[in-house]
Amino acid sequence: MPGVCPATSGRALFAEPADCVGSAALADLQPASTVQSITAGSAVDRDLCLYCLRAWLGLMEATPERGNGMGRIEGEIVIGRPVDVVFDYVTDQSNEPQYNPQMVRAEKITPGPVGKGTRFRSAVASRGSTVVMLIECTGYDRPTLFATTTTMAQADIGYTLRFEPAPAGTRMRWSGQVQPKGIFRLLGPLITWLGSRQEQRIWAALKRHLEATPTGPATTRPIPAAPDRR
Known about the structure:
Elements: H1 23-26, H2 31-37, H3 43-60, E1 71-79, H4 83-91, E2 103-108, E3 119-126, E4 129-141, E5 145-151, E6 155-166, E7 169-180, H5 188-211
Antiparallel strand pairs: 1-7, 2-3, 3-4, 4-5, 5-6, 6-7
């Protein structure tokens, strides 16, 4: 959602590195050619092809609700830093380029502290071009919950991060719901598979980044916003 992607918030689901499929390539591909383009390679490639074929066969027999291409991405990671440190760093999404090399730009475009209603504009690299996305905070309860929606040309993404103390530091859980648009709806299973891998990779990079120094990276602690009590 880390943006797919998610940046956080699924931010990089449509900007997978060249070893998978980038957004520029996805925009011009039909499902059959997508599978053909990644056949005959590593075991990961073969597993992905089988996954996509099974999923597409299932969608052919699905109801319209099942066949809309929507995918869900979930996972968790333990980071060896206090909850408030992890929460403050992750929720200020302008920090993401420091641990996600695909994020070429991330800026906060609303005034005031991070909280419900805060918006960020981000861009991720994708095969020589950039994918621009608008991220809005829809839920904020420091230091336990951060929810966002991401809007881009290829998809809409709802993403939630939950934080809780763990013996080794902080347990961070993510869940994202991806609603592809246009032709990307045909590639829903592929997007979900790639997105799961991408999120694991981004959050593992965040973990390494935050744990690199005993005090964590320098960052300006935001003024806490009022919690979302809807």
